[in-house]
Write a structure and sequence with these properties.
The structure is a single chain. With 157 residues, the chain is α/β, with parallel strands linked by helices. It has one domain: Rossmann fold, CATH 3.40.50.9100. It contains 5 helices and 6 strands; from the N terminus they run ββααβαβαββα. It has helices at residues 33-36, 41-54, 67-80, 96-102, 143-156; strands spanning 7-9, 15-21, 57-63, 83-87, 109-113, 135-138. The chain has a 6-stranded mixed beta sheet, with helices on both faces. Helix 4 links the parallel strand 4 (83-87) and strand 5 (109-113). Helix 2 (41-54) packs parallel to helix 5 (143-156) and helix 3 (67-80) runs parallel beside helix 4. It starts with 6 loop residues before the first strand and ends with a helix.
Length: 157
């Protein structure tokens, strides 16, 4: 059973960025630090919050090991989100359902991967999510998330 983390930071009139994280990212900082580094999800959240606030934006930050929870969050973003940043993790390579959900979202979508998926096993080289993403950031470590926030801020103008 997956655990969904939901933390929202909103200031008046802020545009809301949903930041969605897929399976096993709850172990960030503990799992394979030689690949994923030592930053935790809490560290990523804090960095994203700071980057978003610098642009007058708000974040709704989530992690789930359950595909259906991520899909439900994408559907929720249709109602009140201006953009989505998603690290679908292993679902990148398997989930047409997440792709279909993202295709219903009208705002910008940035796909983030902590590692460079193109330098890893061959099955990781393909991402269904990339078919919808307006941009893909891979191999920049957890800094990829703040780079994505910066890109969203630029695209939302």
């Amino acid at each position: 059973m997956g655990i969904a983390l939901r933390i929202i930071y909103i200031t008046p009139m802020s545009k809301l960025i949903y930041i969605l994280n897929g399976p096993n990212l709850n172990l960030l900082g503990k799992r394979q630090p030689e690949i994923y580094g030592t930053d935790t999800m809490a560290d990523v959240e804090a960095a994203c919050k700071s980057a978003a606030q610098a642009h007058g934006l708000a974040i709704s930050f989530h992690q789930s090991n359950a595909e259906h929870v991520l899909i439900d969050l994408i559907h929720k973003a249709r109602e009140d989100g201006a953009a989505i940043i998603i690290n679908p993790a292993a679902y990148s390579h398997t989930s047409v359902a997440i792709l279909d959900a993202l295709n219903t979202f009208d705002g910008p979508v940035i796909e983030v991967h902590i590692s460079n998926i193109h330098k890893r096993e061959a099955f990781r080289h393909h991402s269904y999510v990339s078919h919808r993403a307006d941009g893909v950031i891979a191999g920049c470590g957890t800094q990829g998330y703040t780079l994505a926030v910066e890109r969203i801020a630029t695209s939302l103008g």
